[in-house]
Amino acid sequence: MVAHAYATVPYYRDAMLAGGLRPDDFRTAADLAQLPIVEGAELAAAPDRFLSSAFAGRDTLMVDTTGTTGHYKRIHHDVDAVLIALAAGGRRRAAGEAVPGARRRGPAVAIVPPAGTNAAVRAFHRKHLLPFMADRLEQTFLSIDRPFAELADALNRLEPDSIVSFGRFVGYLYRRALESNLAIHAPRLIWYGGDAMPEADRRLIEERLGVPVFSTYQSCEFLRIAFQCERREGLHVHADQVAVRVVGGDGRDLPPGTPGDVVVSNLVNRATVLLNYRLGDRVALSDARCPCGRTLPVIGALDGRSEDLLVRADGELVHESIVLRRLYGVPGLSNVALVQQAPDRIDAKLVVAPGADASRTVAGVREALAELVGRFDGLELGIAVVDELPVGPGGKFRAVTCLVR
Fold first, then answer.
1. Among 93, 125, 338, which Cα is nearest to 229's?
2. Quick one: angle between helices 167-179 and 199-209, nearest 10?
3. DSSP 3-state assignment of 49?
4. pLDDT tens for each residue of 372-398
5. Residue 336: what pLDDT?
6. What are the angstrom distances between the C-alpha of 79 and each of 1, 91, 93, 219, 221?
7. What residues contact residue 304 under an 8 Å CB cut-off, 6+ apart?
8. Which residues pair with 82 in a beta bridge?
9. Distance (Å) of CA 267 to CA 35, 83, 217, 234, 392
10. Same domain, 106 and 195
């Protein structure tokens, strides 16, 4: 991968020449630390510098993300990388099959945005897999932006064996149903990724419904990173797809058990090449062997993603993925941080792209926020245009913060 990057990827060729490095200087994953750490802002500012010339104009899976950094980024994955990630999903499925208990009669259900990475990946699978394989792997999908009552009714009708969704959202869905004494189907297990599920929600689901909750770790930049096995004592790293480091503020590796910034290198995607990339999460590696018997490296602790929900006028919650997808459709918006202070008060800081009409961008953000929270009258918006947005503790950026109980 390093040789490929040196030959075809402008950023890494320049970085290696500047550092006096050649591909032969890289023999193990540990040698990747010789490369500079890439920040999300660098990828956002110049995505073509990370795109291999060998894949420019070719058929790739293109996904976009703001992630924990809040910077809008475009990533291309080549066909082989997408199918390798699909194959790695077998590890997660095997862990799910090992969970005791009879299977439910219904399908696997994913509660995800109607348009986004999940939908793009599904379409890519259907394009590149034989039909019988695509049909076998297809899940049943429910849109995350459907009203709460409709989602509960759909789950009761489908009676899924498993549910996959965002951690905060599926935790909210079951907490709200249980607190309202509303009947909601209990699957055999729940998988979440994309953001962290509050511990109180996980306990509520497991203790009240007896449904085990599992976590996966993935991103648009790397597709699959790690997964929980049936023991749920950490997350196993897909070490044949990514190399994971944990670093301190000085960029040096931290010992197992010490939390720090996760730095990931993609070992399979030859389109958008990302080596030594700071993902924006804080994790701690573990040197303990998992009792499940797997020998993959283990992430012992994962702080999760800095994402949140907005509260609508009707009491429904709007997931961060929906919020940012709508906002980044506003012309000229480069970066944004929202704080919902009250149901009818939102403060926003905007970074406007160079050369864009700031007044038009502000007007577009006002319109989008009113739509998102369903308040076209009486919504108080405090919007400020700034040059840049500061990161929070640990280097994370919080794009959406809700202070409404």
1. 93
2. 50
3. helix
4. 999 988 899 999 999 877 654 433 457
5. 87
6. 16, 20, 22, 17, 15
7. 167, 195, 196, 281
8. none
9. 15, 14, 16, 22, 29
10. yes
Among candidate residues 190, 211, 232, the one where a domain is terminated: 211
Q: Dihedral sign, CA of 392, 310, 159, 101?
A: positive
Query: Which residue ranges in the chain fall short of pLDDT 70?
Result: 66-71, 303-308, 390-397
Q: Are residues 60 and 23 in the same domain?
A: yes
Whether the CB-CB separation of 319 and 165 falls below 8 Å is answered with no
Q: Looking at the structure, tell me whether residues 318 and 275 fall in a common domain.
A: no
Extract the tokens encoding 260.
Answer: 């720090």
Domain count, the chain: 3
Three-class SS state of 43? helix
Q: What is the pLDDT of residue 384?
A: 95
Asked, for residue 114, whether it belongs to a domain, the answer is: yes
268 is in which domain, residue-wise? 2-81+218-302
Domain assignment present for residue 87? The answer is no
- pTM of the model as a whole: 0.78
The whole-number pLDDT of residue 103 equals 78
Contacts of 253 (CB under 8 A, 6+ apart): 33, 245, 246, 247
Quote the tokens at residue 257. Answer: 């058990």
